[in-house]
């Protein structure tokens, strides 16, 4: 039986994130262009950023998406008491 290669070489693979197109992008007014674009992620930068906040998990999940700015005003909500 012949040797099979792995389908994805994780050392050479590039990960992308789907984000909204920037308002400064000239294609935002083009109807043929989509409203989202793929942006390559640099895992090394993300891991350095995560370590800065004390997140040391060794997986590919983006834990930074759950962090909030501590200086931002609190979200408004209402509480109804009977």
Short description:
Helix content is 12%, strand content 15%. With 82 residues, the protein is α+β, with helices and mostly antiparallel strands.
SSE layout and pairing:
Elements: E1 15-20, E2 36-41, H1 43-52
Antiparallel strand pairs: 1-2
GO cellular component, one term: cytosol
Protein name: Protein LTV1 homolog
Family: Belongs to the LTV1 family.
Task: Describe the protein's architecture and organization.
With 82 residues, this protein is of the alpha+beta class. The chain has a domain at 16-53. It has one helix spanning 43-52; strands spanning 15-20, 36-41. A two-stranded antiparallel ribbon has the order 1-2. It is extended. The model has no long low-confidence stretch (mean pLDDT 79). It comes from Adineta ricciae (Rotifer). One of its GO terms (biological process) is ribosomal small subunit export from nucleus.
Helix content: 10-25%
User: What is the spatial order of strands in the main beta sheet?
Assistant: 1-2
Number of strands: 2
In percent, how much strand structure appears in the residues?
5-15%
Q: Which key phrases capture this entry?
A:
82 residues, 1 helix, two-stranded antiparallel ribbon, 15% strand, alpha+beta, single chain
């Amino acid at each position: 039986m012949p040797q099979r290669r792995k389908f994805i070489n994780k050392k050479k693979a590039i990960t992308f994130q789907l984000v909204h197109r920037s308002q400064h992008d000239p294609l935002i007014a083009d109807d043929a262009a989509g409203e989202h674009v793929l942006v390559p992620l640099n895992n090394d930068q993300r891991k350095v950023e995560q370590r800065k906040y004390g997140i040391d998990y060794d997986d590919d999940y983006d834990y930074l998406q759950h962090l909030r700015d501590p200086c931002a005003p609190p979200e408004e909500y209402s509480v109804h008491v009977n």
